[in-house]
């Protein structure tokens, strides 16, 4: 009985999280959210499947997960452990593996994968702390740990641990901000994320220009090309928020 009371309490918290974090859910009834929000439906089904798996019920939890994936486009293994106030925005394409562990007040956007690597047994999926946000299309692979309050940029591939309150971008992902302070390169926020590839090319271009300058001075000739081509930082809104 306590297990089912816990499920009901978790579902209420999940609906509350959807209403708070999705602008489209403002002034929408709980019934409408339950009937038309795919991410909430997938999570509701997972809460039930996880409780059945814990109770030792065979077959049914995995069948329920399979049907839920077919209907919502969200695949959550029944054994995955998910905390309260979890929210999946849009939902389509989200995959959460068997040994994944998710803390409280976590938000995932569409296309996120919490996957494993190789065929090893045991813990093989990510662990997310509390208040983590993962942008659309991001892939978190292996038994890595993502610290509390971390943000993962859209389409980032994370294969190493992420420190708490860090912002991570790139492929492979690397922190560009920790505890609100940038690590290196341009400043980063959740809307305007830096382009690490452009920054690397810009640095290499400058180094080549410096070497050409030194070589020209040694040879007594002119600098070829007239210096490096300026790379301008991209401006405008980013899709990192989903």
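-> sequence recovered:
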């Amino acid at each position: 009985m306590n297990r089912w009371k816990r499920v009901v309490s978790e579902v209420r918290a999940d609906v509350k999280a959807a209403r708070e974090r999705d602008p489209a859910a403002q002034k929408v009834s709980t019934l409408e959210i339950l009937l038309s929000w795919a991410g909430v439906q997938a999570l509701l089904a997972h809460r039930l499947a996880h409780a059945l798996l814990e109770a030792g019920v065979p077959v049914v939890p995995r069948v329920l997960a399979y049907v839920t994936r077919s209907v919502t486009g969200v695949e959550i293994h029944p054994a995955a452990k998910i905390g309260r106030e979890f929210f999946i925005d849009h939902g389509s394409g989200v995959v959460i593996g068997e040994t994944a562990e998710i803390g409280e007040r976590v938000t995932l956007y569409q296309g996120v994968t919490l996957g494993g690597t190789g065929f090893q047994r045991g813990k093989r999926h990510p662990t997310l702390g509390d208040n983590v946000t993962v942008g659309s299309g991001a892939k978190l692979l292996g038994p890595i740990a993502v610290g509390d309050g971390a943000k993962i940029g859209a389409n980032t591939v994370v294969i190493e641990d992420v420190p708490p309150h860090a912002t991570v971008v790139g492929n492979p992902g690397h922190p560009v901000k920790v505890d609100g302070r940038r690590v290196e390169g341009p400043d980063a926020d959740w809307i305007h994320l830096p382009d690490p590839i452009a920054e690397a090319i810009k640095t290499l271009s400058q180094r080549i220009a410096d070497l050409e300058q030194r070589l020209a001075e040694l040879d007594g000739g002119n600098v070829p090309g007239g210096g490096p081509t300026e790379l301008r930082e991209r401006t405008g809104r980013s899709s990192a928020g989903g």
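Residues 1-79 form a domain with the serine acetyltransferase, domain 1 fold (CATH 1.10.3130.10).
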